[in-house]
Amino acid sequence: MTGRLTVLGLGPGDPRYLTADAASALAAADALYGYGPYLDRVPPRAHQDRYASDNRQEGVRAAAALEAAGKGANVAIVSGGDPGVFAMAAAVCQEIENGPAAWRAIDLVVVPGITAMLAVAARVGAPLGHDFCALSLSDNLKPWPLVERRLDAAAAAGFVIALYNPLSRARPWQLGAAFARLRGILPGAAPVVFGRAVGRADESIVVTTLEAADPSQADMATLVIVGSAETRLIRRDDGRAPLVYTPRSAERASA
Amino acid sequence: MTGRLTVLGLGPGDPRYLTADAASALAAADALYGYGPYLDRVPPRAHQDRYASDNRQEGVRAAAALEAAGKGANVAIVSGGDPGVFAMAAAVCQEIENGPAAWRAIDLVVVPGITAMLAVAARVGAPLGHDFCALSLSDNLKPWPLVERRLDAAAAAGFVIALYNPLSRARPWQLGAAFARLRGILPGAAPVVFGRAVGRADESIVVTTLEAADPSQADMATLVIVGSAETRLIRRDDGRAPLVYTPRSAERASA
Fold first, then answer.
1. Range of A188's domain?
2. CA torsion, points B143, B144, B145, B146, in degrees to nearest 10?
3. B108 and B124: one domain?
4. Same domain, B146 and B181
5. Cβ of B20 and A24 within 8 Å?
6. For A173-223, what is each residue's pLDDT tens digit?
7. Cβ atoms within 10 A of the Cβ of B39, count?
8. Is B134–A132 a contact, with Cβ atoms under 8 angstroms apart?
9. CA of A236: which chain B residue's CA is closest?
């Protein structure tokens, strides 16, 4: 008998960003698997087991959940944000591809969520209002020269850039290196947004410019948006942060 | 007295993708503004006015909602998907920037939603599991050579590409031109996904390859994902569509 594995996204953390579909999947699962801090956001339920694991254990976590679903259980893997963006859905697919043939028969359901860049963008206006890209700055899983190549290509072509995994204690220099590289391509006045823990008590949103952007304002949980040459700041007089938006139209054929 | 303007996203259409935050904003608004088919997805409420407008009327719609909020009303603009991705939030910011100074004092709230690329990606696995970009193929608001330049840059640098607004009756050739261009850069076996109306009765998901992709399978409401050279297909024996995913790790420094 084959069970079901649901891979679902909680969004940025506050329950108000949860979709009805993700709430149903949480309620229906016999067991939840996930990185501990994400599981901690889900209220406990009777008769629902929980298996917390470290954030470097994606492959092991995916395999454990597939193993349980393969035996007939209805289990869920819990991601922050959207499970398909730098998160668990790809890890599950990879385990299915490389695992026992029976895992291909499991009923795999991916339930989307509000990914960090959408939540941060909403807080400041519409910086992702035109063409944009999402790029992980982690060089744990790809070589740094490839990160540099993608930064260069995206900036030169005029994409707004959302940076995931900007730095961590073990990777302290990557965000600074990315800003330095982007300063060689984009105007210093290009807006930059640091967003963290949207909707939670410790929410932090900082709007600045590329020339002034200080990497030490970010940590592992920060999402950074670097505007294009088209991205605009609207100052407001009343002490609120400026609005940031990228117009839906671009007049120039160059970036 | 200054009111509030909420710009909110319904997600792909089915109520199961609505966030709790968007549902609250819909319930609290004195009036709703939006493209007719999006408003039609919202159940009517007593004492809540509705102003439907055509999908080419973004600026006019934004100004009308700002005008009402400037007079003290609590109004909402309803977008499909996420309001910050090729949608109304940028149009509202643009009207604020160019409109009367009083509009800057309006309490503007953007409520994120599940954008089409996340919903389509979830249906097939995790094609956006690594670096990706979102690009509108409409040349109504930017010159086509800029679209070509961005397609070239994104494909050559190894980004997975989500194409919004792939074509319409008035723009019938753009998606075919984009595929032709991408075939010159990416392998013919790169997976391509056409997704439409996720979660609705007329949902359609097609998984194919770049060499076989037929632009006539898309319409105005289709979201197209073009994989990178790293994106993989996992065949399943039981008649279900293959899984599509992009591994979280990239070994090679070239695309």
1. 117-245
2. 60
3. no
4. yes
5. no
6. 999 999 999 999 999 999 999 999 998 999 999 999 999 999 999 999 999
7. 17
8. yes
9. B104
